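Please, is this right?
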Amino acid sequence: MNGRSDTLVFVPAWNEEDNLPAVLEELQQELPQADVLVVDDGSIDRTAAVARESGAHVISFGANRGLPAGIAAGYGYAMEHEYAYCGRVDADGQHPAGGDGFESYRYKPSGARRFGTALLRRAMRIALRRPFLDATSGMYAVNAAALPLLARPYTSEAPEVQGLLRLQQAGLRVDEVPVDMRPRASGESKLRGKKAVLVVVTIIGTLVAFDRWRQRG
């Protein structure tokens, strides 16, 4: 993973020492020419050390700053180092790094997650005026034109949605490509219970505010 490529893949990570090695190994196998950056969000385990041992570049926050800051830092690094392309995958092992995914391990979301996703799909259709199946996916790929927009600080706990709205507002083309997902490799999601509900409410509020702003414009 050392060396310079025209492509950067960054991995936001918070206390993911158990899952991160397999994620970085898969990236190395599937995208051997890409540079890899791990954005360590103030982890108190060996996340940063594991990333360095795997040959990845590392940005470490002194304290936990949250996913929005990690995402902005990843895109900011890509912009600063003038990469032509930038991808993002999560550190929990849910995203197959290449191919068509793994059919035998197809991810089946819980009923609560399906309900939340249905609400978000309706809100995204209103805000973007087009269907969008999963606005909160942590798997992205963009070119350099999108980097200045996605590297800006996020003011919402729904950075993926806010990023999509920025791209839409700038008139950039956004395509959604279906991919398979696997269950989280180990540990528990940081978004569960009341926090998950709060995120859904926050996202819908962001979309409603954007739609009202656009109507006034």
